[in-house]
């Protein structure tokens, strides 16, 4: 399976939480985070950053009592992963491909937005250089 498709499996997502700061006696355990669609993507300054593999929403500043599913819904209510009416393992091929098409659209929009921002930054710099000639 392609790497992106492996992220549909809760276990694959749960395995990204090896260094997650909340493990026992809290609502946001690695298992609950993964079940809500999150991947753990820590940085040096933010050890508790989690990102939905589907809608790409990043959340940080987790507290032990935070419910991952409630937080996901609160911050990204439009995530198609949250509105599924059946378990991912019970989707037909057609349903899965339709769902994954939405994930790809979201990823492409984000990437295009980042590229446009880079191009705009270069254009501003070039414009300043031309004005200084």
Secondary-structure map:
Layout lengths: L2 H4 L3 H5 L15 H6 L2 E3 L9 E3 L5 E2 L8 H8 L17 H39 L2
Antiparallel strand pairs: 1-2, 2-3
Brief summary:
With 133 residues, the protein is mostly helical.
Description of the structure:
The model has no long low-confidence stretch (mean pLDDT 95). Helices cover 47% and strands 6% of the residues. It has helices spanning 3-6, 10-14, 30-35, 68-75, 93-131, and strands spanning 38-40, 50-52, 58-59. The protein is built from five helices and three strands; from the N terminus they run αααβββαα. The protein has 133 residues and is mainly α.
Tell me the Rg in angstroms: 18 Å
Could you list the spans in which at least 5 consecutive residues all have pLDDT below 50? none
What's the total count of β strands? 3
Q: How many structural units, i.e. domains? A: 1
Q: Can you write the helix and strand succession as a string?
A: HHHEEEHH
CATH level-two architecture: Orthogonal Bundle
Shape: globular
List its salient traits.
metal ion binding, metal-binding, single chain, 47% helix, globular, centromere, mainly alpha, 133 residues, BIR_rpt, three-stranded antiparallel β-sheet, Inhibitor Of Apoptosis Protein (2mihbC-IAP-1), Chain A
